[in-house]
């Protein structure tokens, strides 16, 4: 049976070159980077070279890149430490954030007495920038704004420069969750002037279990995990050297091939929109995902004009993997919080969201196969009604 993977916002297949680089490192380099002998120094050198490659690509200092285990840990470090160590007593975020930002912010409100404020979003899932500005100006409390650069379900892109300006004017700290965008867009973090950002290697054809937090030096963030003082004191624990090497290779390849891959994936996305509009009458798209100028090019969130809670299984029976919400939550077909926030109860009752997410490895033939199966499922629903 065919096997078609269209769930790249959940995770991506690793590049062969990344596997090679990691395997070579696993075979040859086994010292602890904290050891002072030659074995340790070799491991340390690999790590620091990797850190420098990433920092250079983002135009930041190597010391501002803190390796962590994933995007979730990076976001936790930034939010928790802002409250614990930087005097943040108010967090402004939105209802559309990834769970690791949402839950952590809620926990800060419940256990650390932080005021939690949600910025308004519209029915497309776009942030109301004026509301953000008003909210920021309405209080003198030390505030952290945490808003994602691209939504992992509906793909909406945030105007990071605009949010940064508002934060700078009002003295707020600004964290943007860039897990879906780092390595997919050219990004000069120093120029963007954000205080914090986050990355996860498995979203850009690197290994799982490794990521980093970008922490602007001047913020003075302190660790959540303490112990041996690795990562310049910001994250203790013996480093995942192989992961770091894999992350750096994946990052290097992502930047090198960025335009080529972006072009290929954008064309696939356009082709998917066109194919599905031609063959399924009444089809729509959630959020801004079909707006090529304002959405992440790797994500398309389809709104099928009928209710089918089993659509994920039906597609899987034909060998096609997509997502119906965010992948982290168990595969259940419950409507996700993001979809719930942007659609009316009637739309939720009568339509089915499907998130299609692409990578450089997808082809037009795979999209044809997807369109074919979705069209047949739609026809079955039309006949039934
Ligand atoms: N933030 C966003 C926007 C994501 O899409 C994800 C993963 O889906 C995460 C954070 C969490 O990243 P990780 O899987 O590396 O913990």
Which descriptors would you attach to this protein?
binds pyridoxal-5'-phosphate, 12 strands, Aspartate Aminotransferase, domain 1, alpha/beta, 13 helices, 385 residues, Aspartate Aminotransferase, domain 2
Give a summary of the structure in a few sentences:
With 385 residues, this protein is α/β, with parallel strands linked by helices. It contains 13 helices and twelve strands. Strand 5 (143-146), helix 6 and strand 6 form a beta-alpha-beta unit.
Any idea what the CATH architecture of the largest domain is?
Answer: 3-Layer(aba) Sandwich
Major β-sheet strand ordering? 2-8-7-6-5-3-4
Order of helices and strands: EHHEHEHEHEHEHEEHHEEHEHHEH
* CA-atom Rg in angstroms: 21 Å
Bound molecules: pyridoxal-5'-phosphate
> Which fold name fills CATH's third level, the topology of the largest domain?
Aspartate Aminotransferase, domain 2
Number of separate strands: 12
**What general form does the structure show?**
globular
Report the major sheet.
7 strands, mixed
Class by SSE composition = alpha/beta
């Amino acid at each position: 049976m065919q096997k078609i993977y269209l769930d790249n916002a959940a995770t991506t297949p690793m590049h062969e070159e990344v596997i090679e680089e990691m395997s070579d490192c696993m075979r040859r380099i086994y010292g602890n980077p904290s050891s002072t002998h030659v074995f340790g120094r070799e491991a340390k050198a690999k790590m620091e070279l990797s850190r420098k490659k990433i920092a250079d690509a983002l135009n930041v200092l190597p010391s501002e890149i803190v390796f962590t285990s994933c995007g979730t840990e990076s976001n936790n470090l930034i939010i928790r430490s802002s409250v614990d160590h930087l005097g943040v007593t108010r967090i402004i975020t939105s209802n559309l954030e990834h769970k690791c930002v949402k839950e952590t912010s809620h926990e800060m409100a419940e256990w650390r007495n932080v005021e939690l404020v949600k910025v308004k979003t519209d029915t497309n899932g776009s942030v109301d920038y004026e509301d953000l500005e008003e909210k920021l100006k309405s209080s003198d409390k030390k505030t952290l704004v945490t808003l994602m650069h691209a939504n992992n379900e509906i793909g909406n892109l945030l105007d990071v420069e605009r949010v940064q300006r508002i934060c700078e004017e009002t003295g707020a700290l600004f964290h943007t969750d860039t897990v879906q965008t780092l390595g997919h867009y050219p990004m000069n973090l120093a120029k963007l002037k954000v205080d914090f950002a986050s990355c996860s290697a498995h979203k850009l054809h690197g290994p799982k279990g490794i990521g980093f937090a970008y922490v602007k030096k001047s913020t003075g963030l302190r660790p959540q995990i303490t112990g041996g003082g690795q990562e310049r004191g910001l994250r203790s624990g013996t480093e995942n050297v192989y992961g770091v090497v894999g992350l750096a290779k994946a990052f290097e390849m992502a930047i090198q091939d960025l335009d080529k891959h972006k072009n290929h994936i954008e064309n696939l996305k356009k082709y998917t929109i066109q194919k599905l509009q031609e063959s399924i009458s009444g089809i729509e798209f959630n959020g801004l995902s079909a707006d090529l100028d304002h959405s992440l090019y790797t994500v398309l969130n389809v709104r099928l004009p009928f209710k089918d809670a089993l659509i994920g299984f039906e597609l899987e029976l034909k060998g096609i993997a997509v997502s119906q919400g965010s992948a982290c939550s168990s595969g259940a077909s419950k409507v996700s919080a993001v979809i719930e926030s942007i659609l009316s109860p009637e739309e939720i009752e009568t339509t089915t969201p499907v998130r299609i997410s692409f990578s450089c490895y997808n082809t037009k033939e795979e999209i044809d196969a997807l369109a074919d199966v979705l069209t047949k499922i739609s026809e079955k629903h039309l006949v039934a009604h």
